[in-house]
Amino acid sequence: MKRWVLIISFLLVTSAFAHAFEVRAFVDRTQTIPSESIHLTVTINGGEGNVDVSGIQDFKVVSTGTGSSMQIVNGRVSREFSCNYTLIPLKEGRLKIPPLEIDSGGKTYRTREIIIQVLKESQKNAGNRNIFVEARVSDPNPFVGQQITYNFKLYNAVRITNANLQKPAFSGFSAKELEDRQSYKTVISGQEFMVTDLKIVLVPLNARKMIIEPAVLECDVVQHRKRQRSSAFDSFFDDPFFGRTELESKIFRTDPLQVDVKPLPTDTEKLKFSGLVGSFEIKAALEGSQMKVGDSMTLAITIQGNGNIMDAQAPDIEIPAAFKVYMDTPEEEINVDENGYSGKKVFRLALVAIEAGQYVIPSIQLRYFNVSKSSYETYSTLPISLLVNPSSEADKLNVFSTPQANESAPVLKKKVEFIGRDILPLKEELDALKSHGVLSFYQFVFWLLIPAFFCLLAKAVLVLSRKNDSPEKMMAEKALKALKKASHINATGPEFLSCLYRSVVAAIFSTAGTKGESLTYIEAEEILTKRGYSAEVAEQAAELLRKIESAKYSGSNSDTPLRENLLSETKKLVRSLSK
Questions:
Q1: Alpha-carbon span 40 to 28, nearest angstrom
Q2: How many CB atoms are located within 10 Å of the residue 148 CB?
Q3: What residues are paired with 271 via a beta bridge?
Q4: SS3 of 63, please?
Q5: Helices in 48-169 by DSSP H: which ranges?
């Protein structure tokens, strides 16, 4: 009887534990806007497990850690394990979090599907934000081959970090990003914004309606949290300088842009179309007006203008049969700015006269499509006259050819000759080996203890010259270390800008005698002013921080002149603050 009671009790307990294991997924809200993130929590009651979030495709998933808790109710112990995530929506509309798989104890469990409605943010709400982005094109209805400008702007009234810009793929376009980015301040509805302006020159390749996908900016927004007062002394720490800094992940996207690319109209003229779209002209120049038979002279044809100059090909040129023509490699000087491509291409031909006489090189024509007039135009050069005089010497035409092998002739091979000896001959005799003496036991111990002696000496020096652990000293050393690292970085990417930012921030914190990792340029100016620095130095430090942040937030590498300028200003500021 007792045996049956134990078996039944065991089955009941096992069943209770089996039913105690439960997985659950929930979010903090089911409606949001593209710039706001939501928090996903997956809980496991009665054990632990591994959560697979790879099935989430509509959101960017950022893990924010795990946690566990234990409860004892009426003598029963229950344990809950939780995994926390931040989800950033990648698009608008009805998005879903699919059932998530949890692997625990060799078994797989699934949560329920969750639907998230991502609403389009109204213009009214957008105007009240501290940060937003926008994108435009200079002409939404261009012709094939006509260059247009894609303009991305970031407006931020708060400080952001870890910015990463995902530019559109620009399918169907030839895209070239401008190296010179602009940063400036503007005021919108009474609020001051820092604007980062990025421009990309686009050339449509086909005539059709195309969609430029949204540009996506991922970043962390710096949030300042004030301390809660617990005593009368806490009012001293209410200064923003002593506030607590938190990072909130955000994602911003522009609206998709539709570009309706028009085909070029039918050309009624029979002239050859060069394929150039824009505004162009052609010039032809010869080195002289006369030459002798056998001499060479260069004819240069220059095509220049605004548009797809990189696609320019050598025009058709009618050269008289009295000349041998040798084409040289084209030379090009092409620039790109916010107005698009511009420059010139030079085609050079070497003309070698083989007959005397008076000759004329006919007019060279360039047929292109003028965008401003929406019509084809022809630009022509003037005819060029050239007089070829007889040569003063009786020239002979010498023809050189490679000797042909005679198959019947025997192949002669040259005998191998001995031309010298090795500079360093090998020593093969036994007397080349030398015997070395053997160390005694005391000599061996002496040489063995020398490294240990130097190690102890180095340790003693380190102990005696122990660095000052004061915050002022530590932050000053951190500023110099970051500046030194920036000076040795060859690349001009985010790492270089991060080193400059850390150097400036550490130098400012050193003047305050405290530690810190981040500052706004407003806080930097306030700190230096309170510490007795002149208004000019404080403004220079704030402006330098603004420049570094602006270059970093654009999401792209900075050019060499900007890099050298920022490095020079940082060195000057750190030296002035360390005095």
A1: 7
A2: 21
A3: none
A4: strand
A5: 123-127
| Domains of the chain with bracketed CATH | 2-118 (2.60.40.10), 123-227+239-260 (2.60.40), 277-389 (2.60.40), 471-578 (1.20.120)
CA dist., res. 555 & res. 558, Å (int): 9
> Per-residue pLDDT tens for 364-387?
999 999 998 999 999 999 999 999
DSSP state of 538: H
Query: How do strand 257-260 and strand 209-212 relate by DSSP bridges?
Result: antiparallel
Cα angle value 102/108/113 (rounded, 5°): 55
Residues 85, 25: Cα–Cα separation, whole Å: 11
pLDDT at 169: 87
Cα separation values, 139 from 146, 275, 400, Å: 10, 20, 60
Q: In the predicted model, is pLDDT for residue 239 greater than 60?
A: no
Alpha carbon of 201 to those of 139, 177, 387: distances in Å?
A: 12, 6, 47
Query: DSSP letter at 267?
Result: P
Average pLDDT, the chain: 79
202 touches 308 (CB < 8 A): no
Across-strand partners of 370? Answer: 278, 375
Question: Cα torsion at 13, 15, 16, 19 (round to 10°)?
Answer: 160
The kind and range of the H/E element at 484 are helix 471-487
Instruction: Using DSSP bridges, classify how beta strands 277-286 and 375-380 pair: parallel, antiparallel or unpaired.
Output: unpaired
pTM score > 0.70 for this model?
Answer: no
Separation between Cα atoms, residue 147 and residue 341, nearest integer Å: 8
How confident is the model over 495-545, as pLDDT tens digits? 788 888 888 888 888 888 777 777 777 778 888 888 888 888 888 888 888
Tokens 């089955």 -> residue: 11
Strand partners, 161: 220
**Which residues have CB under 8 Å from 448's CB, separation 6+?**
none
Lookup: tokens for 152: 């991305």
